[in-house]
Amino acid sequence: MGEQTANLNVGMDDQRTSVLAMIAVKPTRLRSDQHSGCTIPQMGTTVMKETFRLRDDLPRRGWVWIGITDNGTGDFKCQNCSFPHVRYEHELKNKKTSIRIRVGCICAQHLTDDFTNPKLRERDLKGRAGRRLRWPTLNWRFSSKGNLYLKKGGNVIVLKRGPRGGWAVSYTLRDSFESEWVRVGGWYNTPDEAKLAAFDALYPVSR
Ligand SMILES: [Zn+2]
Fold it and tell me: CB within 8 A of 58, min separation 6: which ones?
């Protein structure tokens, strides 16, 4: 059983570990499992590993990958194997019965017989989480009108302070103050909240 010996293979990858430690909000630290490519949670020095075993009442075949959600903490229970420390929930649907389940990366790989895409989706989502975390700390500047702005990735993002102290956000789809502005709805209490609203509007979670 390669799966069960895999926790011995977990290697140190200092850079990745430190980035993930920044992203993780809860005490659970995350590492990439070199055997499966899946993210595995770790408490202190204890590595907790999801192990695939088909739940008795589930069909073995016909599962398709639907989407992934970051629940923020590693406390979701895999609906197939009951592993209790899932952070990234993979949603699967059965083509024959149409039932949907949410499972961890390892079970998603086995049930869909796809050992590539679930872990890549998980990495995409983690990468986005890291970019979102750094986004408010990028090179935001004050314009001559007192607005905060950022030029990034072909967009200009501008935060304006409203008469009641809240912040409004707009962005352009081209790297120019002259192009058309798209307003992100709502008022935000702090510049950081407004910045993150712009991030979510510009970079929605891919499904
Ligand atoms: Zn599982």
Answer: 80, 101
How far, in Å, from the CA of 195 to the mean position of ligand 1?
Answer: 36
Count of domains forming the chain? 2
Give me ligand 1 centre to Cα 131, in Å: 28
Tell me how far apart the alpha carbons of residues 174 and 59 are, in angstroms, rounded to a whole number.
49
Range of the domain at 169: 138-202
The whole-model pTM stands at 0.62
Dist. CA 114 → ligand 1 center (Å):
15
Task: Looking at the structure, tell me whether residues 173 and 93 fall in a common domain.
Answer: no
Residue 58 C-alpha to ligand 1 middle, in angstroms? Answer: 12
Phi and psi, residue 120, nearest 5°: -70, -40
pLDDT digits (tens, 9 = 90+) for 147-204: 999 999 889 999 999 999 999 999 998 777 777 899 999 999 999 999 999 999 998 8
| Per-residue pLDDT tens over the stretch 80-115 | 999 999 999 999 999 999 999 999 999 999 999 999
DSSP output for 120-153 = HHHHHHHHHHHHHHHGGGS--EE-TTS-EEEEET
For residue 108, how far is its CA from the centre of ligand 1 (angstroms)?
7
Ligand 1 centroid to residue 53 C-alpha, Å:
8
Same domain for 95 and 45: yes
Residue 6 lies in a domain: yes
Q: To which residue do tokens 């649907």 refer?
A: 93
Q: Are 18 and 47 members of one domain?
A: yes
